[in-house]
């Protein structure tokens, strides 16, 4: 203990004697949905009034981003989403300053994708799921991450509440329908964004659980023939999981989605030909059923 204190005192006396200001510590970027903050910790030296300055490199010259701030973070969301940025930060104290510490960051590659929005409505033995992309920070309303990442899709998990068997699906649409579920059963759904061309996944959202009812007549027009007519429950689960796993690996897009999942708007149009999957526009406003 004494030795540690001695070393610490030695270090700090030395530092003050030479008038050196320690640089900020633990420098990191916290970036979610393109809201990007450079953050750091105050160096361990109690040297009175410390302030910090952050600059960014633009056309080979550094420009100020945050100057003489007492905060330990600097918002650089206003910089372009594309391209790699070089930022640097230093400590200032009583007219002296530390060395600069560099950080590089490429928002479009490195920003984290936050949880997606999700609405789940049960109608008879189906669940209607509507997913929405998060907004981009510092852009007008309606600018979503989906408009930045063209290969935007969703990983969806659903399961019977209380069971461990989570069934994975992939959807390129904002709306999908899970059909032929068990009646009077509570299912839970969870989703995350997935950007395949960048192998980037978002944060999972909180599961939403809804209880199915029994098939009435009102949604008869929205049904496909089931994948397997009425297999024993156990077998059905296994087959679905197997297929879904294939889907997730990108090996197959087809049977499962075609028969068990369909984009909502297209599917419920009275004249939609049976088995048509792709919705011509992903911008449609889905007609969520009111139960
Ligand atoms: C700033 O640092 C220099 C040495 O680099 C030192 O001589 C000077 O006293 C310091 N100034 C203040 C105000 O601490
Ligand atoms: C810090 O700055 C305030 C005024 O901004 C001053 O009153 C105070 O004496 C300074 N503290 C030290 C330790 O220099
Ligand atoms: C920080 O980045 C600038 C610009 O790229 C470069 O000139 C400088 O050498 C870098 N400094 C360090 C310590 O890496
Ligand atoms: C960060 O900066 C952007 C653009 O300058 C601004 O729209 C946003 O509100 C700021 N966010 C915070 C948390 O300060
Ligand atoms: C899910 O099941 C658990 C017990 O396994 C129960 O406590 C909970 O209320 C159920 N949630 C819903 C939404 O039904
Ligand atoms: C995609 O990312 C995951 C981890 O997030 C990694 O395990 C996998 O190997 C990556 N795939 C490719 C093709 O880079």
UniProtKB/TrEMBL annotation:
It comes from the Eukaryota. Residues 272-291 are annotated as: Disordered. Residues 23-111, 114-215 form the Fibronectin type-III domain. InterPro entries: FN3_dom (IPR003961), FN3_sf (IPR036116), Ig-like_fold (IPR013783), Interferon/interleukin_rcp_dom (IPR015373), Type-II_Cytokine-TF_Rcpt (IPR050650). Pfam families: Interfer-bind (PF09294), Tissue_fac (PF01108). Keywords: Receptor, Signal. Residues 1-19 form the signal peptide. PANTHER family: INTERFERON/INTERLEUKIN RECEPTOR, INTERLEUKIN-10 RECEPTOR SUBUNIT BETA. This is Interleukin-10 receptor subunit beta isoform X2. It comes from Erinaceus europaeus.
